[in-house]
## 1
Amino acid sequence: MNVLTIRREIQVSGLVQGVGFRPFVYRLAAELGLAGSVKNTASGVVIEVQGETDLVENFLARLQGEAPPLSQILHVEVEDIDYVDENEFRIVESCKGHPVRTLISPDVSICNDCLAELLDPNDRRFRYPFINCTNCGPRFTIVKHIPYDRPNTSMAKFRMCPACQAEYDDPRSRRFHAQPNACWDCGPTLELWTEEEHLPRDRDPITAVIDLLRSGRIGAVKGLGGFHLVADALNAAAVSLLRERKRRIEKPFAIMVPNVTTAEEFCEVSQTEREVLQSFQRPIALLRKKKRCSLSEEVAPQNRDLGVFLPYTPVHQLLFREGGFKALVMTSGNASEEPIAIDNDEARKRLRGLADFFLVHDRDILLRCDDSVVRVANTQAIQVRRSRGFVPAPILLHKETPAVLALGGELKNTICFAKGRQAFLSQHIGDLENLAGYKFLLEAIGHFSKVLEIDPGIIAYDLHPDYLSTKWALQQTDRILVGVQHHHAHIASCMAENHLDGAVIGLALDGTGFGTDGHIWGGEILIADYEQFTRAAHLECVPMPGGAAAIHEPWRMAVSYLAQCLGPEFRRAKLPFLDGINPKRIEIVLRMIERRLNAPVTSSCGRLFDAVASITGIRQFVNYEGQAAIELEMAADGCAEQGRYPFELAANGDGFVIRTNPMFQALVSDVLASVPAGMMSARFHNGLADVLARTARLLRERTGLHRVCASGGTFNNALLVQKLSRALEADGFEVFLQRQVPCGDGGLSLGQAIIATHRCR
Ligand code: ZN
Ligand code: ZN
Ligand code: FE
């Protein structure tokens, strides 16, 4: 025996199963001439490795440095063990009967090796629309149960042919234990459904679809996480038709383009944005449109940005490579805010009238999963909608937590299961206002608890008594139930993502959240830790005339604010923003405000943005959530305005209230002086950032806290984030934002989960 020979046991935990980890270990050991074994265990992978000290050290270093792209190593434990007489490295079967508890990988875009085979006429999978390997393909969306083995996926019904089986069994193959492994002979197939008679049945579906799209037709194409509605983005008539059929006015569509070079024809693409576009998660990246963009304005009307993503399935690749499209509109296959359709027959029913044809296949999608949306600010990728490609990879926590389920909010909903040091946020579930959304919520709860094997003893929910999620929570009488205030959850989400402890100054700015006083909050400055919070300051409250109607019609909020600060006589100023509104409607709104009829009060920051967007003449009616605020932000683009509108910070009981009167007075005199809208927008942003920074300073004097967490949907506003962080950092504050988890309501569930577990301690 060589004296330098050692044997070590290496326990690796994390996302290391179903991602090609064992073949990687096998190849690495073989390359270094090491003996030993690797096998899956309940918590990950255990490796025994034996050989000369240097080589074993080398193995350890490369194990982490070169791990497969989809793996995510959470923890490695190394121990010296006794030498064994062997000179081979083996992959050992995991013992049956011991269910493997491990992480399931998200769905992954087609890898370069599979792409090369897809395009190679000599490869046996040439043009095969379901080609995949351990480095790519569907995962999360085809899993029924754990462990992640073929019989527990929607691939169970396909029996592998001898050639595929041989790859599956060969540790040296890229398809070793690739559960969705398939080929022309044994796997799923595409099928084209159309009402049109002149399409021969034996026609290749891909080429037929290309012809249909070229002729301006709209298709429903089944992808990884659901159906997309697809149209040629360079065909203005097709895009308009899609808008008309989907009844989607002005809300931007995302486009898929064949590669980064084409993206650069339409948009500015930074280095980080390029990386985001090409990442294996393939999210939709929000990119800045070029001044001269050849795309139809109908794709994203009045919008500075364009949602762009690259092909991520073999079907997408074939459509682009053989169809030569420059850009395809790809939007969720659903009727406005409903969940995305996944089942073939369901799609045919629900999308009838929307699509001219259906490109379907027989590999069932078991769990719907929308595309993710990411934007880049200062070379950092920020999650706007965390879904396909990222889910169900965990968010790592810095402390142990008991098993908990958090149900999120009402719009852009996600749920969160957490246990140990991992928090699993669900895919985008969407709006729970409709029954379909609620059913999807229940589906997600059932599925996650099964595949994660988490039985939550604690359930966290929003304080709003009318939310369907709240009602569901209150029925779970055998659990500990914890109601969490909306804005507290936003701040805790930001703290958890940034691994903070103790108390912080929390800036929680958004549209709507139920307050502890029963009012609608949304411009909140909290002193918060994981257990509790105090409302240290907030935007002053104003009536929302007509309730929800005020969200759809920003001019109502403008009237409300102006009536409050200038009195009803403000109409004598003849501000142009009301020119298009029927005077009778203005009268009614004024009466609602005066008599407090159907006019709940709110401290919402979203509504403040709406009012300013209205008075500057930018927008009186919105067609999608946040539209007025988004357009107000964009109006300030490139405006180097240094001036700012004054907000007043007044004492209010134990805290402060931010009064808007002087701000609106200054705004109105600018409107009367015909100051350009962009300049007014910049002055508003500057003023808001300033008053928030001043508030933080006063709270620091009182509490000694110097860490600021900023969360809530308003922080999707990059301009505000930039101005505010600059002001705070210049003043010695540490500023924490959200990146991995959305700052909007998609990130609420994480905060709820953490607060609930702390309350139960
Ligand atoms: Zn692959
Ligand atoms: Zn096969
Ligand atoms: Fe919110």
Note: The chain has a mean pLDDT of 94.
## 2
Amino acid sequence: MTQSPVYDVVIIGGGPAGLTAGLYASRGRFSTLLIERGLFGGQIATTEHVENYPGFPNGISGMELGQFMMEQAEKFGLKTISAEASGIELQGGLKIVKTSEGDLVARTVIVAGGSQRQKMAVPGEEEFTGKGVSYCATCDAAFFQDQAVAVVGGGDSAISEALHLAKFASKVTLIHRRDELRATGILQERAFAEPRIQLLWDTTVESVEGKKFVEKLRVNNVKTGTKSAIEVSGVFVSIGFRPDTDYLRGILPLDSAGHIITNERMETDIPGIMAAGDIRHNSAKQAITAAGDGATAALSVERFLTESR
Ligand code: NAP
């Protein structure tokens, strides 16, 4: 990349928070660059069907919703590049965003990089990733047509993944560490009504085993201590997310779990650096609230740039 121009705002992350911030900042006629290292649309792009984003009474595919958000922001002038952020440095009144494609210079930064799937951290998980261990049913379910699979977790993501997998797999074993699901009521109702989904309560996975591909999981009943094995061709790990802020340690104030601390205007302690979406402390972690955060962060950028002129 050649020498960076000075952008009014650089946005890190192309999910609903970042794309909404991009829409607002571009409509405000600020020069705005958004960087994304993976899929534009973020987590929503790997969600099969979104039915709780207002305005779509019949729901919408997550991929399509992400594309619409991007098109809408680009229509007003948002520029995007594929790059991974690795740091932010302060230089006078400017911010230098270090990225895999070179340094970007900005007057303000909105950090909206979201979060990454939590790993189980058990033997075999790493080794069989891509060989039966997956973190995305929308991406990989079709590989498991008429085969037995497991989903680990009890939240909205795990149930959504299990329901999607039930359209392909012969059997879906939902492995949850407690005897009560965390997921929202309507998803629980659907899971209990789906004959291909079987619940394995009070159970944790101890290891993932196989030869070339996953063949079985060793599991432990946390109440009785009984250990057993279940035969599956795939395991979908859906046990929450961790914020993607390792590269911001020592730069921005983080909570104990690594989320960025902001005020209600999405401002961090560093003037001109805002955060939005799942990455911030106390986020409701919904596409709609991430979009709201993005709008609020962009309005704070506008205020900051106007006042610092
Ligand atoms: P989550 O709500 O944090 O749930 C994580 C689940 O994994 C919990 O059931 C938890 O068990 C279990 N878990 C955590 N660590 C574990 C471990 N080490 N071993 C075994 N199990 C473990 O995460 P999520 O389901 O990914 O959802 C994240 C956010 O996105 C939520 O706010 C959710 O509402 C939102 N979301 C919404 C939708 C939707 O609206 N349709 C879809 C997806 C996600 P415990 O219950 O025992 O803690």
Note: The radius of gyration is 21 Å.
